[in-house]
Amino acid sequence: WEPDSAVIRSARMDGSKVNTLVSRLSTWPTDITIDYQNGRVVWVDARDKLVVSSKLDGTDIKYIFGSPRISYPLAIAVWYGSTYWADLHMSAVKVARERTPLTR
After folding, report:
1. Distances in Å between the alpha carbon of 74 and those of 17, 44, 60?
2. What pLDDT, on the 0 to 100 scale, is given for residue 33?
3. Which whole-number Å values give the CA distances from 5 to 45, 49, 90, 95, 104, in the listed order?
4. pLDDT given at position 1
5. CA dist., res. 44 & res. 32, Å (int)
6. Average pLDDT of each block of 10 consecutive residues along the chain (104 residues)?
7. pTM beyond 0.85, yes or no
8. How far is residue 26's CA from residue 32's CA, in Å, rounded to a whole number?
9. Predicted pLDDT of residue 98
């Protein structure tokens, strides 16, 4: 994609009902997942070295964490209050644990 042209969209499984959730990202999103427990979309940004989230409707964008914890994120997963990401430059899978009702 070209700079400032990346978007996050949702659609039905048959490809209908396409809806833009987050538009004009000036970043390089490399992976995306859904945090069902908190009702959020979570993605990693390789250029700005960030983990970012929004509500499922694309509102309430939050920057969760970034450099120096992240070098070059390629993949992301959320599981029971913990966020996992694969980092190419560190050759590792990293984790950030969050305190949630399921992990207390």
Report:
1. 28, 7, 23
2. 94
3. 14, 18, 28, 29, 40
4. 53
5. 7
6. 74 94 79 92 88 91 81 90 90 76 30
7. no
8. 16
9. 67
Question: Under the phi-then-psi rule, with left for phi > 0, alpha for psi from -120 to 50, and beta for the rest, what region is 50?
Answer: beta
Q: What pLDDT, on the 0 to 100 scale, is given for residue 104? A: 27
Predicted pLDDT of residue 70: 83
**Which contiguous run of DSSP H or E holds residue 8?**
strand 6-10
- What separation in angstroms does the CA of 104 have from each of 53, 83, 100? 22, 16, 6
Q: According to the 3-state scheme, what is the secondary structure of 47-100?
A: CCCEEEEEECCCCCCEEEEECCCCCCEEEEEEECCEEEEEECCCCEEEEEECCC
Nearest to 49 by CA among 27, 25, 82, 71: 71
